[in-house]
Amino acid sequence: xxxxxxxxxxxxxxxxxxxxxxxxxxxxxxxxxxxxxxxxxxxxxxxxxxxxxxxxxxxxxxxxxxxxxxxxxxxxxxxxxxxxxxxxxxxxxxxxxxxxxxxxxxxxxxxxxxxxxxxxxxxxxxxxxxxxxxxxxxxxxxxxxxxxxxxxxxxxxxxxxxxxxxxxxxxxxxxxxxxxxxxxxxxxxxxxxxxxxxxxxxxxxxxxxxxxxxxxxxxxxxxxxxxxxxxxxxxxxxxxxxxxxxxxxxxxxxxxxxxxxxxxxxxxxxxxxxxxxxxxxxxxxxxxxxxxxxxxxxxxxxxxxxxxxxxxxxxxxxxxxxxxxxxxx
Length: 329
Hints:
alpha+beta; Trigger_fact/SurA_dom_sf; PpiC domain-containing protein; five-stranded antiparallel sheet; signal; 329 residues
């Protein structure tokens, strides 16, 4: 499968990725925004970027007026966490930065223009501001490395999982209650190695949408490959909402995760540059646990489903629960 395109086209799509990316106890050091192994990013570093944003970005000034700079702080911490993760992954995977590509993208710097305060999804504003106040070469390099990581594995990635669903079939359940039901079901399925099969069997008998042995290669579903389905180890239960536009949650147990076997399929889908960056970011997920990430509660908690910082545990976009008694690789 041919992924690389002409350099000029590649620079353009990488620039577009940057503009579209949405992409327990606290740290022992009080001054830390987060700790990752022996690496510390301080609250002062984060605050300096927030202050820079308020000085330079009208959209940040708008957030300040609305008393929403906490959203910007979380976006900055999220991006700096991902930067540390991709740096570690690049070292372990032997990835090298295409300096020419980085320089060409930087030459037309997609981050030089301030974020528009009109016509932009408000949920995307903090992330777009955060990109602009960071070092632009660093931000672009992160995108290039995540794309390279995805390219290394994309045509060899597949997962096998069993799942059930939580749908709005009880008189129009509210999103909060749907989330609570999905989280409760995830805990139930993770109670022991045989619990998931029992829950799915019961749900199937009750008419719920379920499936056993669902195998999906990334080349058939690039968007799914960027989700938590592909990011966790076998013996893990996940609960997530595939689309915020649909009132349905998926609760699944991952049975197999393969990153080494070339996938031969009838119809492969050529991933876009933005999809590759998103897949690369998802491949960073195992590094979070390995590195022992600790986020200062001042900013919130790490959301493994969204791969960013949520305001609180009650506001995460899903759940990741290890099956009790299972042996993970």
